[in-house]
Amino acid sequence: MPRRDQLNTRARRFIERMGVLSQEEGLTRIAGRMVGLLLLTPGECSLDEMADDLGVSKASISKDARHLVQLGFIERSSRPGDRRDYYRVAPDIFVHSLEVSRARMQRFHALIHEAGAIPVAKPEVRDRLDELERSYQYVLRALAEVIDGWHAMTARGTRKRGTGRR
Q1: Which of 18, 44, 91, 136 has the greatest number of beta carbons closer than 10 A?
Q2: Rounded to whole angstroms, how far apart are CA atoms 117 and 86?
Q3: Do residues 94 and 150 lie in contact, with contact meaning Cβ atoms separated by under 8 Å?
Q4: Which residue from 74, 136, 66 is spatially nearest to 103, judged by alpha carbons?
Q5: Are 48 and 84 contacting, i.e. CB atoms less than 8 angstroms apart?
Q6: How does residue 138 score in pLDDT terms, banded at 50, 70 and 90?
Q7: Which backbone phi and psi does 163 adopt, to 5 degrees?
Q8: So what CATH class is 4-89?
Q9: Beta strands 45-46 and 82-89: pairing type?
């Protein structure tokens, strides 16, 4: 695990940029920084280690860790004889992030679909709602294909690695 004083400038910049990007996507900056740190860390980190490495309070880390676990971006584990919890990036973080995006889009799509039942007098409004409906349908189909394709590709890769062939 890299300690804060051992993180080079590029690593610190990456971690901070992950925080900013995550904040733009609706998470807290600390949550994004945690994911950035865990992406660069072999194995696992305790809350104390992450708080120290990121220079933030353990309370903030703890709250964000629970949220990231709920989202499926990180996993919590424990060690025999140790009361602390340890965290690592979930092995399927890529596909899970796509699934989270798809679920969010499905909620918006359902709301737009519901708005389609509202009587409107102006064709401009109906056209706007219809266009949004088609857009969400298209993107949701495409995301489903990407996720299914990823699962198929990784399943083939797992079988190849298991047999020693590539």
Answers
A1: 18
A2: 49
A3: yes
A4: 136
A5: yes
A6: very high
A7: -95, -5
A8: mainly alpha
A9: antiparallel
